[in-house]
Amino acid sequence: MRLLNASGCLDALTAPEVAAALDVFVTKTVTPKPRAGNAPVRIAETDVGMLNSIGLANAGLDRFVQETLPRLSRLPVPVWVSVGGFSAEDYAASCAVLDACAEVAAIELNVSCPNVEAPWASAWEIVAAARRETGKELYAKLSPSVPDIATVAVAASEAGADGLSLVNTMRGMSLDPRTLRPTLGTGSGGLSGPALRPIALAAVHACAQATDLPIVGMGGVSSGRHTLEFLAAGASSVALGTVLFSDPGAPGRIRTELSAEADELGLASIDNAIGAAFRMPAGVLEGAAVTKPPKSKNRSISGAILS
Amino acid sequence: MAERMRPRQEQLVVVGNEPVGSYTLLRVARGPVDPGQPGQFFMLATRERLLPRPMSLCLAPAGELGFLIDPIGPGTRGLCDAARGERITVFGPLGHGFRLDVAHPVIVGGGIGMAPLPFLAERLPGAPALLGFRSRELAEASALLPGAEVVVEPTLVTEPLTSLLASEGDITPFACGPEPMLRAVGALSPRARLAWEAPMACGYGACFGCAVAVDGALVRLCVEGPVLEAARVEVAVLPAGGLRSPSGAASLASRGKAAA
């Protein structure tokens, strides 16, 4: 089990000690050109989660490679670079540049940011274009805002993805209590935090059945128990997002809690919980080996997506 | 500039929660947390809310940290309702506070923007202080800054500041308040040191909620600021009308002061 941060939820340069407490650091999404991001207000709290509308604010790929990446290479953990864009060519061009960077351990394709007109339906096209340009590990980060996320996961797999990051935020809105106008400058934004957790868990569960790809599960994880649940649903890694905003010490705390959860369940290793949700009879963990969840049949749909 | 203290996250005990006009002065036992420099801020959290709220330090009496809070939303109300003996999560000090290296400082505050100014005044002995408020009830908070010249709307705090600048041109305003006030102070004095506020979820550079354009580049107020020289900030990128609208409507980030 590896613990990561969700892209956009941590800056390792301003908080290197937090990044060092993870197993992998994932960068904020980098786009080919600089982006100022969306107009304020960019974040809002709701009773069940947090909304953000940052708008992929970043300095662009050139400055990232020249200025940020060398500094990130001093981290004691591998660096994954999150890549965003507005066409498959954008992703491919970024991957070609990053392929030459030894500091980059893997690339996460942000094919699902809800704050831009993201082409989620062309996941296959994006992954395939990226695949042609890099031999580095490629993770496809998917949106849960689709009728059948497993279909998208299979498309990403067939296009050459090495893994899945599940899930990105869902679109949400809050209104100012006095003016009754949207709180966020863009009206709506990405909902993260507790409300996203059951949705993400279902997405992980569905994609673990549909593909053999390793899964990084994320969405509202704020405790060891939550982490355990994502593992049981089929993730082999778990990423922390919103919780990092309120608790920079979350990685260490969650590891401690996870260890206690494993002890309580009598697991020799927390990895023994991976895929537990698929094992029958339900709830039997004792001595369980890591098993592949059953794979659904007839999931090859990438042709349908492209047609 | 003084060396920045490493921020700490601690559970601190509430030792007092007292009304100051319409605001509340929340006092917590300091524990191992350093008060930092005036203008720096802390993220304060109760268990009831998902995200912490940024608050600049108002007072730093021995063994305590004091925060002046305007209870305008669920997060700030929760902090104001925290009972004596209850623990709240405190993370800080964060950001860059006021650089104090000027010969003739003048302290300027507007509304809840006066929050960091009592602590600042301790470090700037003898500096004149000007405070502006929308109402007499709000102006009761000026008791935390004895000797300050206080104006109430329709008089704006920029009026006595303009007079002071005319008579003593060599002064540097240290200001905190609503964004239109900061704009006006910056227009009067480009070298003014202004404490800005913006909604932020984390306070340590992770969320990008508080990013603004400074010197032509996108920076996070929680990392580069919240105190910046007036001439550096392209205020046009801040939300039109300010983060604190005339109706008092505001976003997530509390109004305990200006760091958001």
Give a description of the structure:
The complex is a heterodimer of chains A (307) and B (260). Helices cover 32% and strands 16% of the residues of chain A. Chain A has 307 residues and is an alpha/beta fold. Chain A has one domain (2-306): Alpha-Beta Barrel (TIM Barrel), CATH 3.20.20. In chain A, the strands form 2 sheets. An 8-stranded parallel beta sheet of chain A has the order 1-12-11-8-7-6-5-2. In chain A, helix 4 (123-133) runs parallel beside helix 5 (149-158) and helix 5 (149-158) packs across helix 6. The N and C termini of chain A lie far apart (37 Å). Residues 113-119 and 300-307 of chain A have low confidence and may be disordered. Chain B is of the alpha/beta class and 260 residues long. Chain B has a domain at 8-94: Elongation Factor Tu (Ef-tu), domain 3 (Beta Barrel), CATH 2.40.30. Helices cover 17% and strands 30% of the residues of chain B. Chain B is built from 6 helices and 14 strands. Chain B has helices spanning 74-81, 117-123, 136-139, 158-167, 179-188, 221-224; strands spanning 8-20, 23-29, 41-45, 53-56, 64-69, 87-94, 105-110, 129-133, 149-152, 172-176, 193-195, 211-214, 217-220, 227-229. In chain B, helix 4 (158-167) packs parallel to helix 5 (179-188). The longest helix of chain B is centred in the middle third of the chain and has 10 residues, at 158-167. Chain B is globular and about 50 Å long. The chains are: A alpha/beta (307), B alpha/beta (260). Chain A binds chain B through residues 8-11, 13-15, 18, 28, 36-37, 39-45, 49-50, 52, 54, 57, 59, 176-179, 183, 185, 193-194, 242, 244-249, and chain B through 9, 43, 45, 49-52, 73, 75, 89, 91, 198-202, 204-209, 211-213, 217-218, 220, 223, 237-239, 243, 245, 247-249, 251-252.
